[in-house]
Amino acid sequence: MTAIAVHGLSKSFGRKEALRDVSLSVASGEMVALIGASGSGKSTLMRHLIGLEKGNADSPSEIVVGGQVVQSGGRLKREARAVRRQVGVIFQQFNLVSRLSVLTNVLVGLLGQIPSWRGTLGLFNRDEKTGGMKALHRVGIADTAMQRASTLSGGQQQRAAIARALVQGARAILADEPIASLDPASARRVMETLTEINENDGITVVVSLHQVEYARRFCPRTIALRDGEVAYDGPSSALTDDFLCELYGEASAELVLPEGPIAARSRPVATAVPAFAGA
Predict the structure, then answer these.
(1) Residues 111, 123: contact at Cβ < 8 Å?
(2) Half-sphere exposure of 173 (CA within 13 A, CB side)
(3) Residue ranges of the domains in the chain?
(4) How far is CA 123 from CA 110, 114, 120, in A?
């Protein structure tokens, strides 16, 4: 089953063409990395998948999530709001309310499922709180439940955001550069958490990354954008430093950590046909 499908998506900001006829699909239960040098269009693509941007009105584009059309021809569909309830979104800047407890931030994932007045007043019942604690156990920070979110480290805050997606009951998680502002140890733990959820719960994960080492280690498949187009779509194991240099030229340096590649995880690699046929 296809979890996410994009057909012919183009997006311009004035004279700048950020995305050009992008088409891709992600199967249910896949964990896919989205990489690209600065200005490649990966953040713009993620914003379209999330529903924060609309494609060009003169483009016959379509985005389908969970079998429902979210936008078509540059217009959001009525079903978009319902689809968003099935998609957990994780941003680089965590998007937690710093003055609220970690548990309350996690329970915010229920706001689309409970009466609005309870959500406004922060009134959650015992079962909901139990579910929130289970999610915090899953991501390894249950001991921080009663702390203010502002007291957590960056890595802990990102794991709280993942717990919020679990409470939401998301069938897909879209993570837009979730480790960009984290130290290597915290980044690795966040990626391990996303991988555990993907493998054990079958939740589809699409994660945009600026460092290709994490794609190689944690994601069987990588989609690489270059100048707003899909330049490669295939096994992450094929993303050697030489291939990245061929794909991005000098800009490849920003995708490779100076300490070198991280050893690959021992998990099956999905087969796919590269979209890149040469420089």
Answers:
(1) no
(2) 36
(3) 96-169
(4) 11, 10, 8
